[in-house]
Amino acid sequence: MSALVMDIFGPNFQMWLTYIIILAALIAYAIEDIPVELTSLVTLGFILVIFHIFPVLDADGNNLLSPNTLLLGFANTGLITVLALLIVGQGMVRTGVLERGAQVLLKLGGKNTWVTILVTLVVGMLISSMLNNIPVVVIFIPIMQALAARINKSASKVMMPLSAAAVLGGMITLIGSGTNLLVNSALIQLGETPFKFFDFTIPGLVLASVGLIYVVFVMPRLLPDRTGEEGENKHNGKHFIAQLTVAPGAKLVGKEAMGGFFKELPNLTVRMIQHQGTNILPPFEDHKIHPGDILVVAATRKIITEVLTSNNGLLEPHHPELVQKSLSSMEGTHAKEEGEEETKTQDRMLVEVMLPPTTQLSGQTLQGINFAERSACKVIGIQRRSRMIRARMDDIRLQSGDVLLVQGHPSDIHNLRSNRDVILLEWSKEELPAVHHARRALTIFMGVVLLAGSGILPTVTCALIGAAAMVAIGALNVRQAVRAVDSKIVTMVGAALALGSAMQATGAASFLAHGVVDALDGAGPRTMLSALFLLIALLTNVLSTQTCAVLFTPIAVSMAHELGVDPRAFAVAVVFAANCAFATPIGYQTNLLVMAPGRYSFKDFLIAGTPLVFIIWIVFSLFIPSFYGF
Predict the structure, then answer these.
(1) Mind spelling out the 3-state secondary structure of 200-268?
(2) Residue 126 and residue 216: Cα distance in Å, rounded?
(3) Which end of the chain is more exposed for a tag (fewer CB within 10 A), N or C?
(4) What is the pTM of this model?
(5) How does 159-185 read in b/e, with b if 16+ C-beta sit within 10 Å?
(6) What is the torsional sign of CA 390, 393, 399, 403?
(7) Mind listing the pLDDT tens digit for each residue in 322-374?
(8) Does 410 map to a domain?
(9) Residue 500 falls inside a structural domain
């Protein structure tokens, strides 16, 4: 039956079917009401069925698009690399290792935090010109996340610009991208003069500079603001009452308040200090902070979380055993090494619970009800909107409607669901950074980057070892590592690579390339060069950049010879155009890396990335012909 259908519709029947499937998939991806995973799996299913019924046969009668071939995308080293690097990156985020780096960048940028982001993107672009784009983006994703949080911006505003800046940087030198090296290898096979290291650095800098202006000043305006989605910044404005004990050696020891405020605690409002049983109220005149002082403070949940996860010598005093250990260091004892303290646990979670009208805790104090012993969870703060509280948490009598900020192991937090005296606010769950693993996580991360960047080991090998090491040291548990793997990326890449295989096997890719050449027959070199660039730039967002590089380099060189112009200009067109994978998440691996942190949809890339493709095309068309003398 398949032979009869192909006799009726002609030998190019499979090619046209491929075009129809690609067009349908792109439309479905752009419709946000349809889950990306569903679109990818349905697309893949159609391809498997169609090319089983209408096989593409080679000279020996073997199906070039068998299920084994079409499903190879799920074993693609690029996909595995991205997924493993997502786990490594999540390990870095969870250990909070780059928070201080973000603070340093903010200080360097001064009051204008967008200057800081500009500097970060420029640095990332320049590093990307010398190293593989993937490890560079992995390095900067946590930094950009931290910067976005510091300036109260959604990560969706900065993640795609990061990927675009890295891709632009890959245009500057020969080793900036694997695509560049593939084009160079194809030139050698064709007997042409290969590129030297800095042969296209000047035009690359021109394109990258113009592109960066768009990336910094226009792209963020086109991207959605997803603040508040999936928990981002949803509880930053609430203020809780907490109490902290000043430990020996803390930076606050010996400091005095200026107008009732301590500059060492810029984001905390100190409402009362208890010193040796005496309560001291603002403005705390003539009082120097001593070890063991109890500070009753008001702060947002975000600031309290930073206090809990930073090594600043402040402890929760309503746990006497912690205070006693802290004060014992005054007699000459030293804190235990990282990871040895009994008070540190591998998994800690922060959550809010509300006291309902029926609670039996009303009128009682935390100390009186032994909340920590009964629930194995610690109360970190209390929120009461009715009035300002100036009392120790242990002395506050609870009321219905109070919200408690609670810290505990995930299993203990889960058990609070069955506690009738509190209502667990599920949306408020937040895992605390495992800062005691920060040093080891940083070592693993840098090892992955250095080994991958130097080429000592393949990137996929480094990424897999790094992901396993993050779990092995406890920076992530298996559940958290699995959760870091984005199902959208897995299914989308599998479907995209299957479509790419179909385009090659059915001749759909070659048909497009030769169609453009034939349509422009007789046109001048400038027009041919510009048209070639635009064709490759559009296809590289559907096919892989590597496929475009291998497919179009021989075509570009042939066009140059026919026109009697320098083949390097047309080869450079392939280099730059194949790197223009800005318009879809499947175009390049760095797009996939930022898709999850930025919570992007396929449509987001189309809206914000497509203009950049055309901007680079226009600048290329105006500048490159003159640069190469025609």
Answers:
(1) CHHHHHHHHHHHHHHHHHCHHHHCCCCCCHHHCCCCCCCEEEEEEEECCCCCCCCCECECCECCCCCCC
(2) 15
(3) N
(4) 0.60
(5) bbbbbbbbbbbbbbbbbbbbbbbbbbe
(6) positive
(7) 444 434 444 444 444 444 333 344 567 888 888 888 888 888 888 788 787 78
(8) yes
(9) no
